[in-house]
């Protein structure tokens, strides 16, 4: 298990101190470990989806991408090693990063059926069948703000369509973002990368302009890994999935946190590049039951 000093860097500590939750963060941080416990290994082998986040300088920023496969395509192959069979398509912004020895990656395995999620961050090693991640940090998150989807099916013959590139969101993409109940965010710092989840009732994310997104940062586990990373390095990648059609909307840009006097926190994300891929994953999930923890979005 890591020491608290290993879990948090200066960016996370600065946010924890500003909000006044250092003690709570220290308590939660003691659950972060290096190894993959048997219960975590069993969880991984049941998942058909893995979200991976990393910096990709050749693709112009930090990105989050979905990887999908038959359960077992992600599995623990050692006390600290997670192996992935397959990988991104050649045109994925993370294709080069996920084929490069030593890339810092953040991964998130999320199971809407059980409202469980697991994060594993570490360094990448290419393998003949895909890649492996040597874990630096392994930990679970509570089910807060995670929508429940009871079942999924793999759609036979569903293949990714041609990706659409842009520098700003179209009207349809803005509407898609504002109808979302879930998105994923990848962030980085000098020692690693992280992939995390944000959820809420539809409307919790706003797109006030073609190049700006904003969302309220709901109370969480007090760790402030994402906001801490952003305090140190504002680069970020967002991933919005269509849980029915499998479409993936990926954005890269920079994010900044605004702290209001009443304690509310709001994140503003400036879009620099857009990648919209129809049918990116072959999974079709059932309709969601929204988390009872979700606040009502502003009118």
UniProtKB/TrEMBL annotation:
InterPro entries: Pyridox_Oxase_N, Split_barrel_FMN-bd. Pfam families: PNPOx_N. Coiled coil: none annotated. Residues 169-269 form the Pyridoxamine 5'-phosphate oxidase N-terminal domain. PANTHER family: FAD-BINDING, PUTATIVE (AFU_ORTHOLOGUE AFUA_6G07600)-RELATED. This is Pyridoxamine 5'-phosphate oxidase family protein. It comes from Streptomyces prasinosporus.
């Amino acid at each position: 298990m890591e020491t608290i000093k290993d879990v948090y860097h200066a960016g996370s500590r600065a946010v924890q101190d500003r909000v006044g939750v250092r003690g709570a963060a220290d308590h939660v941080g003691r659950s972060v470990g290096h190894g993959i416990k048997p219960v975590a290994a069993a969880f991984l082998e049941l998942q058909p989806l893995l979200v991976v986040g990393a910096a990709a300088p050749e693709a112009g920023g930090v990105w989050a991408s979905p990887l999908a496969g038959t359960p077992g395509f992600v599995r623990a192959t050692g006390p600290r090693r997670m192996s992935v069979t397959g990988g991104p398509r050649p045109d994925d912004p993370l294709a080069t990063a996920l084929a490069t020895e030593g890339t810092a990656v953040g991964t998130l395995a999320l199971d809407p059926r059980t409202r469980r999620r697991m994060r594993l961050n570490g360094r990448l090693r290419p393998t003949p069948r895909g890649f492996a991640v040597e874990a630096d940090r392994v930990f679970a998150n509570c089910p807060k703000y995670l929508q429940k989807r009871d079942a999924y099916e793999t759609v036979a013959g569903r293949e990714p369509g041609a990706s659409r590139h842009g520098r700003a969101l179209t009207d349809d993409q803005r509407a898609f973002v504002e109808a979302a109940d879930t998105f994923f965010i990848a962030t980085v710092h000098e020692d690693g990368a992280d992939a995390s989840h944000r959820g809420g009732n539809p409307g919790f994310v706003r797109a006030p302009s073609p190049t700006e997104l904003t969302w309220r940062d709901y109370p969480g586990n007090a760790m402030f890994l994402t906001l801490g990373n952003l305090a140190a390095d504002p680069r970020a990648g967002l991933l919005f999935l269509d849980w029915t059609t499998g479409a993936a909307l990926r954005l890269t840009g920079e994010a900044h946190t605004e702290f209001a006097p009443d304690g509310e926190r709001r994140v503003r994300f400036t879009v620099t590049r857009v990648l919209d891929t129809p049918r990116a994953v072959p999974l079709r999930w059932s309709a969601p039951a929204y988390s009872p923890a979700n606040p009502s979005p502003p009118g």
